[in-house]
């Protein structure tokens, strides 16, 4: 007589890249078990056309899809559209906003993050996170003459470059732009692109891209186009989120960006408060709005004493992990950045609860060449690894950390240049103990290599350098390059052949 097979119930929370990847992997690995994906948004983000370019570099498209697509693909996968309200870890249950309760054997939380706003509840301060907030931004921009962008990460970099027809005051706390991704040298290389009139847009962008609602509308299960309801917590946007959007302000200028370096926002005032301050015998220093541009609805006072009026402020100062509904009554260990702390099996500190993507913080002893950054590639890798770890735990099998966590790799595009970041590209954590090699040809390429103890540990490649695969191999092989240092960036040497 055959023993009764007890089915497992896996629940994944979050329809972003991490959650969908995890749920799909579980659904195909456990075809006889039930997988439930609970997500607050009406659309899910699916990874398509995945390509492994080299040992650690990968490329894929991300598409917004109706939830029915997933259910059609995996008969054992059910998608529930409702936000999780509460987790009762001890009972292995989750409650959703629509009043339902779900039991799980294994749970993976992939609820992403939300923008860290300068201030909550100020109608003039907006964050960009999902399709709806991006569309709100676009709408407000169309009537704007001047906006203030605060932050120095990827979103701010893309915004200041893409916005046209509107003056941009860019407030960064660092001494160079793009500090999250590269150093002062690379910033110098990119700055002329900000000042120049934007050339004709380059041909089709080679980088994979997200589609926004315009390109990928919502369909009901009957195939009828639906009006979207506004989700309170949609998935994060990703690369090229602005490609199908016109980011055009109300002025006839192409590109007008002024950077305030080493600066932070001190106070935000409404126009009434600003008038009171001005008439209250406290003369403002710095740049006042020009008399002909009309009154600004909001004013920002910076810590350097300057005050700028503007139409609205974009707060692009990072994300906070979306842990809210899961914490109460459970003993999750949180990392310093408030993410759910996970080990190398993507396990949180609560039994049978895993986490992946922007919501979690990698707290294992990471490889010397890898660091966590809240990026879409890492969301996919973590979602996939979490599913494999859940499977290994269920099947009582050993599992190693996936090879993708050996070397940090990120391919993106800034100011229309291809940008590849490898390893400790900014000499993160190396102190003074490193050497930099740089090759730069203005307007064409910028190559920086970080060497530590004669070995390549990081690189920034801007432009069509074609060096990524060779450098990736040199880093992974830990080759001693002391003897080749002078040749490494010699433009007359074919480096690929050299190390063949
Ligand atoms: P998310 O995509 O945020 O998904 C979270 C999911 O959880 C959503 O479906 C949400 O609805 C759901 N959810 C949240 N709370 C609940 C709840 N209580 N109950 C149920 N469901 C819930 N990365 C790059 O690599 N390159 C880039 O160029 C880039 N550009 C970006 C530009 C913008 C404007 C933004 C906002 C992000 C960008 N990123 C970029 C970052 C990247 O998009 C994220 O790191 C990645 O998408 C995170 O995926 P995730 O699955 O962890 O979270």
UniProtKB/TrEMBL annotation:
- A Pfam family of this chain: Pyr_redox_2
Q: Does the keyword Hydrolase apply?
A: no
User: What range(s) does the FAD/NAD(P)-binding domain occupy?
Assistant: 9-178, 298-383
Q: Which domain of life is it from?
A: Eukaryota
Designated name of the protein: Pyridine nucleotide-disulfide oxidoreductase domain-containing protein 1
Keyword Oxidoreductase carried by entry? no
What does the similarity note say?
Belongs to the class-I pyridine nucleotide-disulfide oxidoreductase family. PYROXD1 subfamily.
Q: Which GO terms describe its molecular function?
A: oxidoreductase activity
Query: What's in the keyword line of the UniProt record?
Result: FAD, Flavoprotein
Q: Which cofactor is essential here?
A: FAD
Q: Where is this region: Disordered?
A: 210-235
